[in-house]
Amino acid sequence: MTQTRPGPVQYAVLVLLAIAFLYPIWWAVSSSLKPAAEIIASPLSIGELTLDNYRAMFADVPIGTGFANTALVLVVKGAMTMFFCPLAGYAFAKYAFPGKNLLFGVVLLTLMLPTLVLIIPLLLEMSALGWVNTYQALILPGSVDAFSIFWMRQTIAAIPDELIDAGRVDGAGEFGIFARVVLPVIRPGLAALAVLTTMNIYNDFVWPVVAVNDTAHQTLQVVLSTLAQNVTGNRIGADFATVWGELLAAGSIALLPLLVIFVLLQRHFINGILAGSVKG
Amino acid sequence: MSLSPIDRRGFLKGALGIGALAATGGALTACAPGTGPGAQPSRLAKPTVSASSAKGEITIWNRSGDLFKVFDAAIAKFREAYPGVTVNHQAVDIDAKLANTLISGTDVPDGSFWDDAKIGGQAEHLFDLTDLIAPYRDQTSPYKLSVNTVEGRIYGVPWDLDPGLLWYREDVLEQAGVDPAGLATYDDLLAAARTIKEKDPKTRPIHLEKTPFLGQLWLEMLANQQGTSLADARGELRLDSPEYRRIFGWIQDAVKDGLVTHAPYLEPADVNTLDSGQQVFVPWAIWWSFAPQQLLKATTGKWRAAPLPAWTPGGARSGAMGGSSFVIPAKAKNPELAWLLYEFLCFKEPGYTAVYGPNDVYPGGLSTSIPSYQPALDPAKPLFQPIEALGGQDLWKVAVDAAATIPAAAPIPWWWAQSVDYLGDNLQRLMDGTMSPDQVIADSSEKIQRNLIDRS
Amino acid sequence: MRSVRLSPYLFIAPFLLVFAAFGVYPLIYALQLSFMRWRGAGAARWVGLDNYLYLLTSPEFWASLGNSAVMWLLIVPIQIVAGLGGAVLLANAKLKLRGLFRVAFIAPFVTPLVAMAQVWIVVFDQDYGLINYALNLVGLPDVGWLTSTVWSKPTLALLFLWKTTGFAIIILLAGLQAVPGAVYEAAALDGASRWRQFWSITVPLVRRSMAFLVVVQTLAVFQMFAEPYVVTEGGPYGSTTTAGLYLYEHITASDLGTGAANSFLLVLLVFGLSLVSVRLLRPKDEVS
Predict the structure, then answer these.
(1) How many contacts (CB atoms, under 8 Å) link A and B?
(2) Per the CATH hierarchy, to which homologous superfamily does domain B164-320+409-453 belong?
(3) Average pLDDT of B186-190?
(4) Nearest Cα to Cα of residue A147 among A121, A109, A111
(5) Domain B8-161+322-385: what homologous superfamily?
(6) What is the pTM of this model?
(7) Which of A3, A11, A14 to mutate: most C Cβ within 10 Å?
(8) Which residues contact B390 (CB under 8 A, 6 or more apart)?
(9) What is the predicted ipTM?
(10) For B234-267, how does the pLDDT look when each residue is reduced to its tens digit (9 = 90+)?
């Protein structure tokens, strides 16, 4: 609308919405600091604060291993996505070459395919390669994904051809144009891709649960989902509250790094999405 | 404590379900499906070594939690008898991992604890233990043997037996003038419930299970009591039978007369009505025993156990509800040593005594199941002690006497857990009064046949 | 010139290699499986279209689509309206604490689903959940949020809305900020009411972002799996067995061929729905 100063009604709506969005996170984090038995007994009040849930969780669950594995996968897999996808997106956006449309069509098709259907064939493939319980299995599948390629193609397509031709006239090689002309221009889009990729890799749990059976390769989400299964399994017993407290503690710890990254990068992320979808 | 005897989620769904894939077999040479015939079962022969000369290391998987601690102590006893064997005892989310591990063939344990319901569908990944179990066969619970037998061969070392019992409030029965010893048939149970309800109209004396999965497991206990089960040994559905009709009719009568509390197993709604006196009878497996010990603060000490009523006069007074066995994967590195461990735990006195007898975790002994090996089941020689939360009742004797009547069944079909979507849900509709017994039988049979059996 | 012809291939080569091995190969494998009966063990049998026919004649298959359709109705329209409202408020440059609000709205989007789904289970528990506890405080009776067939879908839809509406706001905000302020000023001079400005200027201009959002969320809703899997296991009485979860149930039952066939039917459906929504939301003046 016209940029009038927002009134109290607008502020009230925004504040209420913000509370609704933040409350479940606040509830999870604050409950993780309460004595386990009180999480259920008095869900609304906060009395005594304790780190017992965290102590129990660290003693019971290999969350350190989980963090280390997630970090490793995140760095390697994320780097692959962040390099290969813009590179391929550039080729799809700015070159005409035989087979291009067919290839891009296949990319779009896999974008629509439920990820679940690939799980079985992928698991059999990993098994045939002897890759079950390896980092390759966690890193390679999904390291270049249809969405990122699509997103990068859209972003790069918006760059005026003149800019690229100018680079060519200046005598830059084809890769040089990509590195020195294209990448700097799409920096906001790259920032958004980085945040989305980080989030997807960090929060992925279906594939890691399937691909890895041993504790040594468990990612953070696998640790979390195992703990969540314990909650369901123990619901009938007295341990329920304890396991619950541990899950909330682990969940809070798992949520923190991403939240911090996001708060730090939110401006770039949002600007990237803005830049990308305006032109897309 | 929460020795949860059943990991509900794992049992129901498997490892994100991929568990079911374990049927894949080792024939994954190429990615073209089905390149090889099903692998021949590998037979395990009796180890020739003696106790003192057995040497090596084995990796054994168990569920995490208190049960793990109990087995840890029992394994220490095994080490005393077999000093040359090192046991790497691991607490593992078995339901999530074992099936996947069997497919991939990497890091396979030498032995693992597993639900009886899983074993029938996975036989080709397991050692055929028929010859090893032969010497103990005649003395093992026929029910446990039957669920571990596929096409005449035995694939699991039978571990716990979980007899169904009738849990009741002694004080309430006494006030109403009901003699628990007179509850010989399910009709007697209905009559007793009516008497109690007349005395106190607030009561809805009989527990009916509200979670579809446990409800169906409970149904199978009542069917097993009559010598039947959902599928016969050839895997054919036998739901349309007088036995099941009898159970469904009984449930319908109880619901119509307002004699039931329909609540989810030991969740707060259940615990509250158990403690308030609304529920008086709980026909359930022996593992319900931890409820009065741990969860029922108001009525602890007032509960007792009796054998289940019979469906027909003189019929069996118990049926099995759940249970587990030990399996040795066909790709185990030291299967002989794993067998020695399981033989010790299941069939040797120091072994089963270490698990069920008084120990550090359970000072009075483990009272949520009993062994399936009959020499261990002497009514006069209890492994676990009388239980205070049951007013000092000797649960051991009640359970052992009831268990002796449990009839044999058939291997549990691979689709049992999936069938809960049909039979388990319809059983709930029967309990809600929105389906009749005939509808439950017709609808469940049709759907199980079409969506599960015919798709195999 | 030579290098210009070769370079696109070099540029897509790494992507192609990984994509072929871990995207296309499993895809073809799955397609082949969809025409076979294979329980994971033993020989696979070629059954032609049988898996597809079985699904198309299964009441359970149609019920799963119905469940997803209801979820779609509960999610997408609300998300578009709420997202647009939030975006309009946030687009105002004179708004104080803009950054803070943006962070608040998108924070749920970055939370791990496994943990938050467990929070949902406890918060909406019938007997000891936070919501019913609060209802009781103001004298209202318990609601079976996750145990009644009436409420189970809205409760799951709420989880989905909570997690992704922030994303929708950002996408729509992107569309809004492309609207030059001058357009509004001109309209204001013309004396158009704020409401008219919204309908005649804002909405047409964010159509493209809305179309993008509808396509992405349609895809997500029809593939929705983790939420019902963790929170309700598809119950009560199959009321939350979404298309994604139903597909997964074939996998649990080791009916891999049917699972594959089910995925391809879903792809067709989602593709059709996307085409329809893109067409409906396309700006009127665009031809192609």
Answers:
(1) 83
(2) Periplasmic binding protein-like II (3.40.190.10)
(3) 97
(4) A111
(5) Periplasmic binding protein-like II (3.40.190.10)
(6) 0.85
(7) A14
(8) B289, B292, B301, B303, B304, B305
(9) 0.83
(10) 889 999 999 999 999 999 999 999 999 999 888 8
